[in-house]
GTP cyclohydrolase-2
Amino acid sequence: MIKLYAKAKLPTMAGMFDIYTFENDEHQDHAVLVKGDVTGKEDVPLRIHSECLTGDVFGSRRCDCRDQLIRSLVYLGKQEYGMLIYLRQEGRGIGLLNKIRAYSLQDQGYDTVEANLMLGLPVDKRDYTFAVEVLKYFNVKSVKVMTNNPAKMDFLLEHGIRVTGRIPVKSTPTPYDEFYLTTKRERLGHQL
Ligand SMILES: Nc1nc2c(ncn2[C@@H]2O[C@H](COP(=O)(O)OP(=O)(O)OP(=O)(O)O)[C@@H](O)[C@H]2O)c(=O)[nH]1
C-alpha cells in the first residue's frame, strides 16, 4: 500500500487540481493530479500518461503525446471528478537517451517498433503498478480510462481494477506524426 508524501493545490490551464506525491514511489517523481473528490467513486475518468519530454515539454510533433496530455487535462478539468496519473517512464520505459537513439533510426526510415528492436530494447517496457496502487489508495471503485491503447486497460483489469469504459483520446495527425500513428495502430494495436 502506498503512503501519501505530500499534497498541494495545483491551479492549471484546465482548472484547479490537487497534486499528490507518494512515499513509496521508487522514482520519487511520479505525479498524481486529482480533480474533485474521487474517493470511493464509480466510473472515475482516468488518464494514465507516460512521460514524453520531447512532446509534453518541448511540443515535439513526432508523436501525439502533448496533444493527448492537453486534451486529457482539459477534459478532466470539466468533470466533477477525475484523475491524471503522470508516470515518469520516458520513451515507453527505455528512457530519454535510448528514445533519442531510436529516433535517430526512425530518421533513417525505420518505424518505432523496428527501432527499439534494432537497439535490443523492448518495444514497450512500461509498468502501471504504481497507477494501480494509487487507485487502491483512493479506494476508486471503477474507472473509465482515457486511452487508445488496449494494453493499458488489460493491465488494470489483470490487477483487479474495474474498468467500466474507455474514453478515446483522439489527436489531430500532422505530417510529422502520421507514420508514428499508423505504426501505433497497425503494430501496437492502438484504436486510433
Ligand atoms: N521508444 C519510443 N518511445 C516513444 C516514441 N514516441 C513516443 N514515445 C513514448 O511513448 C510513450 C507514450 O506512449 P504512446 O504509445 O504514444 O501512447 P500510450 O500511452 O501507449 O497510449 P495512449 O493512452 O493512447 O496515449 C511516452 O513515454 C513517449 O515518450 C518512440 O518513437 N520511441
Q: What stands out?
A: The first helix runs from residue 53 to 57. The chain has seven helices and seven strands. The domain at 4-89+126-186 is CATH 3.40.50.10990 (Rossmann fold). The mean pLDDT is 95.
